[in-house]
Amino acid sequence: MRVVTGTLKGRNIPFKNSAFNQADVTSGKVKESVFSIVGPSINDSWFLDLYGGSGQMGIEAFSRGARVVINERDRRRYSFIRSCVDSFDASDRVTVFNFSDDVCMRYLSKRGFSFNTVFLDPPYIKKWADVSMYGLLLARIGSFGILQSGAQILIQYDSKNILTSVPENFVSVSVHKYGGTSLALFTYTGNQ
Fold first, then answer.
1. pLDDT in tens, 98-136
2. pLDDT tens track for 141-183
3. Domain spanning 17-122+143-157: which superfamily?
4. Is 94 helix (H, G, I), strand (E, B) or coil?
5. Residue 43 backbone phi and psi in degrees, to 5
6. Is 167 helix (H, G, I), strand (E, B) or coil?
7. Contacts for 129-132 with beta carbons within 8 Å, 24 or more apart?
8. Pair 58, 68: CB distance under 8 Å
């Protein structure tokens, strides 16, 4: 996979699914859509990728001018992301953590982080279903106080899912479908 644009345009991220338990990665089409939706506001913003996987979303955000936090729970994937960030000489604007999602959000909250843009691509439930996990995840993120009012939250999920239990302080803006993958955009209106 390659960085699409910005200071690292064309640089390769040598992530191989086979080396990482066949990890699902965001397709190039979905990645381009995420950054098209976010637009130029990414420049000089704070971007959180809570489920880093290959690290490509956070690295793309960095390339486009954001300050970035990438969290990846899996130790091997974390090490891969860390080595990419180091090889791109991005350590001054990209921080990589190896925490569970709750531990990461608690850590960020205690240190006063505040994000304009959040990308969420947790492990999918791949079946037709009403899925409350995403709404519950939004509620948890909101409760940690790490979102700026007006923050954009993008959730990547299986198109067979129906997102439910979304808190009132997250306004659904749009849903985009790309075959078996959907991308939902929410805006955070502040604490309830």
1. 999 999 999 999 999 999 999 999 876 666 566 788 899
2. 999 999 999 999 999 999 988 888 899 999 999 999 999 999 9
3. Vaccinia Virus protein VP39 (3.40.50.150)
4. strand
5. -65, 125
6. coil
7. 129/160, 129/161, 129/162, 130/161, 130/162, 130/164, 131/157, 131/161, 131/162, 131/163, 131/164, 132/164, 132/165
8. yes
